[in-house]
Every structure is written in structure tokens, then in C-alpha cells.
Specification:
The chain is α+β, with helices and mostly antiparallel strands and 275 residues long. It is built from 13 helices and five strands.
């Protein structure tokens, strides 16, 4: 199932002070010293200092090398190049562009091949680009207003009319999701993502059902999402995959999230649903 989504998070704007202040800001955010960065980038602390203060203009190769070692998101590397006086290197191709047909069809085949287990494709704002039948099964009965594109995975999961009331360990799973967003905000410095975090963090947490029995304790190897479905409690471990060395902003911000059954009962139930 392919879902229409909104645009990606806004990118940073290069300053008129050159690339130095931008690189210094990324280095300080990553808590890396000039010497450590120099060692990583096969340079010298003196040269890094000169770049940051504007006394030396880095080559295009050096800008990209420093960005790589500072783990600067692909979206933010174009502003670094522009600030250094170079042309942007990374295009931002719409996912429905014919140039990405192979990528799009490959992701569709991947998540369909994962069935009956749930899997979906999201971008940096957690907007859903594609989902398989395992995901649609979990969404059964969700109000239509939450399913209107663009579908957002965080809103859908944490909204009190969404999946939240069905998640047996909501407080733990909610804490995991909010912490995940915190890490992404620190990495990407995205205001739209920060606003989304503030929105979903403010959702009321549904009260536990009166007389509800706690889920039977099971020795999981990672925090599971325990969710009710048709009178059963299904348990899933989430795994997220991204693309190696992406050369396009859109591709860099895509992630494939798969949900691995965390116990034999979940495996048996899902496999019983296979035609």
C-alpha cells in the first residue's frame, strides 16, 4: 500500500559568514574537539581552526570530508557547500519521480515480502510512504480522520484515538518513541520535527482499563510493543533500516521499519492469517 505524504523537513540556510561558523556549530553539537576532528579527517587542528575562523577556505573535498566525520545529515551538507562557495552536491528528488521508480518498487517488494509481519516506510518527519498488510491489520478500526493522508506514524501511534489505547505497555513504548525523536532532533536540528515532538508529547496518555490484567511477563531481548488485536496481545520488536551512503536528500531520509514477532504466540497468530 502506497500512501501520499507531505514534504520533507526544512533545511538549514547558509550564513553569509562562510562555512566556518556552520562547521564549528556542528562540531560543538557533536562534542568533538578540533584535534579529534583533525585526526578523523586526516588534517591538523591548526587547519580546522583556520577553517572555522575564516582564515582558510576549505576545498570542496574537505567540506564533504568534515561533514562525513561530523555525521552531518545529507540535507544539511548542501548549505555547507553553498556557504563555502561550491555548488550543491545532493539533489532532493520527489519519491514519485520516475528516476526513483526502481527504489520505490524495491521498497514495496521488500515490505510485501515481509508479510504477514508488519513493515512500513517513513521519512524524516515520520510520514508514511508505504505500508504492508501487516500494518493495515493493526490499523483496523482506527478513526478515519487519523488515516487521512499524509499518515504520520508518530501521531497514529500516540494519539488517544489511535493505537495508544491498544498498546499494553504504552508508557514504556511512548518513552521509547519520544526518546527516538529527541535523538533525531539533535541530529537534524529540524524545527518541523521539534513541533511534531511537542504535539505528540502533549497527547494525554489513556488511563489503564479498570480491572485490566498486566501482560504476562516474558524475557524479551529488546523492548517490545505489546498491542491488543482482536482479543489477543501481540508483541513486536522494532527494527529500522536506512540506505548506505545516500546521494539524494530524499533517499537519505527514508527508513524502513519492520516489526519482528517477539514471542511464539505472535508468530503463530500472524502465520495463521496467511492465505
Amino acid at each position: 500500500m502506497t500512501l501520499r505524504t507531505s514534504g520533507n523537513a526544512a533545511s538549514a540556510t547558509p550564513t553569509d559568514q562562510g562555512v566556518g561558523p556552520l562547521l564549528r556549530a556542528w562540531r560543538e553539537q557533536r562534542r568533538v574537539s578540533q584535534l579529534e576532528l583533525a585526526l578523523r579527517a586526516d588534517s591538523s587542528a591548526r587547519h580546522i581552526s583556520f577553517i572555522e575562523t575564516g582564515r582558510s577556505r576549505p576545498s570542496e573535498e574537505m567540506v564533504l570530508r568534515l561533514a562525513e566525520h561530523l555525521d552531518v545529515p545529507v540535507r544539511e551538507r548542501n548549505p555547507l557547500l553553498l556557504a563555502a562557495g561550491y555548488a550543491p552536491r545532493y539533489p532532493e528528488t520527489p519519491l514519485d519521480d520516475p528516476a526513483l521508480d526502481a527504489l520505490r518498487s524495491g521498497m514495496e517488494r521488500l515490505i510485501q515480502g515481509y508479510e504477514p509481519y508488519p513493515a512500513l516506510v517513513v521519512d524524516a518527519m515520520y510520514d508514511v510512504h508505504a505500508a504492508n498488510r501487516g500494518i493495515l491489520m493493526l490499523l483496523d478500526g482506527i478513526p478515519e480522520h487519523l488515516l487521512t493522508p499524509p499518515l504520520n506514524a508518530m501521531r497514529l501511534t500516540l494519539h488517544p484515538e489511535g493505537l495508544a489505547p491498544r498498546i499494553r505497555n504504552l508508557r514504556e513504548w511512548r518513552g521509547h518513541l519520544l526518546a527516538q525523536m529527541d535523538r533525531q532532533i539533535a541530529l537534524r536540528r529540524s524545527e518541523p520535527l521539534r513541533r511534531l515532538h511537542e504535539e505528540v508529547a502533549a497527547y494525554p496518555v489513556p488511563e489503564e482499563k479498570p480491572g485490566a490484567e498486566p501482560a504476562e511477563p516474558v524475557p524479551y531481548f529488546a523492548l517490545p510493543m505489546q498491542i491488543e488485536h482482536e482479543g489477543r496481545v501481540l508483541s513486536f520488536i522494532s527494527s529500522i533500516s536506512t540506505f548506505n551512503t545516500p546521494m539524494d536528500v530524499t533517499v537519505a531520509e527514508l527508513a524502513i521499519e519492520t516489526f519482528l514477532p517477539a514471542d511464539p504466540a505472535t508468530v503463530k497468530y500472524l502465520q495463521s492469517m496467511v492465505p
